[in-house]
């Protein structure tokens, strides 16, 4: 199915929840709504589902206007953070309920589908229990299985894994990616986590404070953020940002540090230099620019060490593989690789990005940047 939002906005009194936006998720694929809490993700999904009527704009499905059509008249499946199950039905019957309602299938076929979904979501040992006998994470998986069983052409998932522990979330992301890839549904998946968006792939719409900032294939939006706001939203840890001045193809940073950036000689003026934590190095490489500082914090996350350093250009966060033994206050030198840097102009628009092997150019003539596909917004 083709879902299209045209100029959709949502406002209650003086409070704007969604500013006018146009978005056409790719049919039969996964679109991730990425943004912090209160970015507008849930408000947008409620409009998509028909739970709320937009204050302005239209909602189209396969070219037909369904604006204001209630959710009960649409073929939509939904899973929200606040899971909803039928308390009087066993887990088996909860999952089977949409199959029994929407299609005439033999009992054996329904049972096989229920057990298949339950096994994928690791709840096949719970089929005879009632929701009240389950943990919150187990109940969320039941709700997710029921939504998948419905096989609706539009599936809306609002942070469906948020109540699960880390290990199970990782497992279920893999399972969901496979389920989505082999299905025909248009899937809208909301998350606050950039890492989850990258793992799920598909396409990503970045939202911030009710505005749609960028939409396109997930890797492209990640590697080529159109603006500072997108770069901030699509990085975990946040992208390191340093104010500087670009002149003659070099960026002058605080502390007398200069960084050459090839291919931007035509642009002069104030800029914000961006570098991802994973792009910083401890050892110098050819062409790298050394930034001296001291360790403010070293924290372990999984198999990586995140080093927070106070440097001549300001506070920087670096991500290194493995467990590093760094003492607080110890001297540390971080190295910037010019080919890994982003530049944003005074208005926050991207004017330069690292060139990806076999990918898009870092910039195009005239200071404009290579943008994500125009389809959908």
UniProtKB/TrEMBL annotation:
Keywords from the UniProt entry: ATP-binding, Cell inner membrane, Cell membrane, Membrane, Nucleotide-binding, Translocase, Transport
Region (Disordered): 355-377
Domain of life according to the entry: Bacteria
Composition bias, Low complexity: 365-377
GO CC annotation terms, alphabetical: ATP-binding cassette (ABC) transporter complex, substrate-binding subunit-containing
Domain ABC transporter: 3-234
GO MF term set: ABC-type ferric iron transporter activity; ATP binding; ATP hydrolysis activity
CDD domains per the UniProt record, alphabetical: ABC_Carb_Solutes_like
SUPFAM superfamilies: MOP-like, P-loop containing nucleoside triphosphate hydrolases
Record-given protein name: ABC transporter
The organism's taxonomic lineage, starting at the top: Bacteria, Pseudomonadati, Pseudomonadota, Betaproteobacteria, Burkholderiales
């Amino acid at each position: 199915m083709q879902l299209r939002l045209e100029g959709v906005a949502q406002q209650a009194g003086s409070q704007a929840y969604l500013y006018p936006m146009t978005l056409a998720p790719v049919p039969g694929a996964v679109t991730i709504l990425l943004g912090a809490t209160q970015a507008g993700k849930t408000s947008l999904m409620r409009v998509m589902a028909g739970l709320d009527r937009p204050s302005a704009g239209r909602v189209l499905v396969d070219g037909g206007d369904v604006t204001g059509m209630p959710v009960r008249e649409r073929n939509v499946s939904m899973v929200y953070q606040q899971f909803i199950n039928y308390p009087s039905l066993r887990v088996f019957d909860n999952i089977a309920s949409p199959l029994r309602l929407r299609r005439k299938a033999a009992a054996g076929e329904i049972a096989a589908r229920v057990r298949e979904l339950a096994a994928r979501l690791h709840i096949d040992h719970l089929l005879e229990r009632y929701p009240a006998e389950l943990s919150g994470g187990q109940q969320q998986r039941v709700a997710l299985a029921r939504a998948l069983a419905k096989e609706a052409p539009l599936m809306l998932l609002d942070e469906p894994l948020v109540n699960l522990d880390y290990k199970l979330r990782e497992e279920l992301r893999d399972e969901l990616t496979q389920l989505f890839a082999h299905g025909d549904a248009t899937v809208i998946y909301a998350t606050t986590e950039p890492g989850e968006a990258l793992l799920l792939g598909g396409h990503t719409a970045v939202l911030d404070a009710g505005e749609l900032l960028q939409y396109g294939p997930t890797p492209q939006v990640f590697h080529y953020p159109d603006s500072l706001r997108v770069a901030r939203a699509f990085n975990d840890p946040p992208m390191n940002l340093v104010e500087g001045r670009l002149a003659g193809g070099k960026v002058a940073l605080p502390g007398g540090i200069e960084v050459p950036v090839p291919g931007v000689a035509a642009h002069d003026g104030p800029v914000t230099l961006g570098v991802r934590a994973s792009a910083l190095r401890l050892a110098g490489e050819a062409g790298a620019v050394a930034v001296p500082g001291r360790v403010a914090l070293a924290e372990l996350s999984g198999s990586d060490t995140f080093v927070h350093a106070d440097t001549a250009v300001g506070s920087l966060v670096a991500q290194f593989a493995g467990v590093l033994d760094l003492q607080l206050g110890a001297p540390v030198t971080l190295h910037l690789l010019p080919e890994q840097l982003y530049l944003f102009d005074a208005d926050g628009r991207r004017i330069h990005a690292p060139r990806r092997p076999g990918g898009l150019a870092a910039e195009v003539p005239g200071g404009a940047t290579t943008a994500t596909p125009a389809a959908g917004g």
